[in-house]
Amino acid sequence: MSTLAVVVDQQGAVVFANAALESAMGMSRRMLEGVEFAQYLASPSLLRTGLQSSDGHGYAAMSFDTGLQRTVQEPLFVHVTLTPIEHTDLSLVELWVLEQQARQDREERLVEQAQANKELVRNLAHEIKNPLGGIRGAAQLLEMELDSRELKEYTQVIIHEADRLQSLVDRLLAPHRHPHQLADLNIHEVCERVRSLVLLEYPQGLKVRRDYDISIPEFKGDRAQLIQALLNIVQNAAQVLSDKIASGEAEIVLRTRVARQVTIGRQRHRLALELHVIDNGPGVPDHIKERIFYPLVTGRDGGSGLGLPLAQTFVQRHHGLIECESMPGRTDFRILIPLP
């Protein structure tokens, strides 16, 4: 059966789970047996209520929509049907994955998140920028009044740190300062440019493999912004691959495909560019997996946490979206951009 199915007793404990359910949850049948299945659902009370009302099999079947919690991957949105098994004290729980609904909800969440981030960052950056200039100017004036070389070292620290913060603020404001310049664009020219830049930075130990669909048509886009967006993602991937680069086993794949009948932000598109950046690194840490597109969120020591939010902003300017699926050994950033 391709349908996810599990048999439970009157207490809701798993008696049997089929292979499709094992695969979807990333858990073996033996791990599931004897465990209350309701705890893996986002709305456990619905299943528990259904099982309680099944005493004496006073119902034919019941169904509801909920989320199926998984140990490693994101939850699956599923349609659940609960059916009593005749002449037994058991019930059959069948789950159909609502993939389209899951994708749509995730995309809407990303779009709303990016919009909120943009407003927050812009306001915060402006609030920081104004007093920062005053701090730097005051430090320079103070330095001119000081004769002691040792004391001037302190003012230099203030000036240096003010400049560093100014650079950070400029990066936060960068997407809002540059106009959107559209021209005919070949996505593979963008990929090749990014590939050459990354290989210059990592000449040994890293393979950047091409997997292109050369039939993808040109489209109107801002070449500089898309290069920056893709470069941010690929550089992030290369940085987390440092151990594998040292051993010569690091690999990043740039894959382009045409996706058909794609919904982005509730709008249906007949065709869309699907650009994947896939690496064989350790994966995104679980504690930041849901927040990687938030500004200043990073899983790497010394990281600024600005690369992915800026990439998301640039792609959304093209009415597109960046998604991420990650597990140890494989992280896939998927860029979707509508095609004419």
From TrEMBL:
Its EC number is 2.7.13.3. SUPFAM superfamilies: ATPase domain of HSP90 chaperone/DNA topoisomerase II/histidine kinase, Homodimeric domain of signal transducing histidine kinase. GO terms for molecular function: ATP binding; phosphorelay sensor kinase activity. InterPro entries: HATPase_C_sf, HATPase_dom, His_kinase_dom, HisK_dim/P_dom, HisK_dim/P_sf, Sig_transdc_His_kin-like_C. Residues 123-340 form the Histidine kinase domain. The keyword Glycoprotein does not apply. It catalyses: ATP + protein L-histidine = ADP + protein N-phospho-L-histidine. Gene3D superfamilies: 1.10.287.130, Histidine kinase-like ATPase, C-terminal domain (3.30.565.10), PAS domain (3.30.450.20). The keyword RNA-binding does not apply. Keywords: ATP-binding, Kinase, Nucleotide-binding, Phosphoprotein, Transferase, Two-component regulatory system. SMART domains: HATPase_c (SM00387), HisKA (SM00388). It holds the Pfam family HisKA. This is histidine kinase.
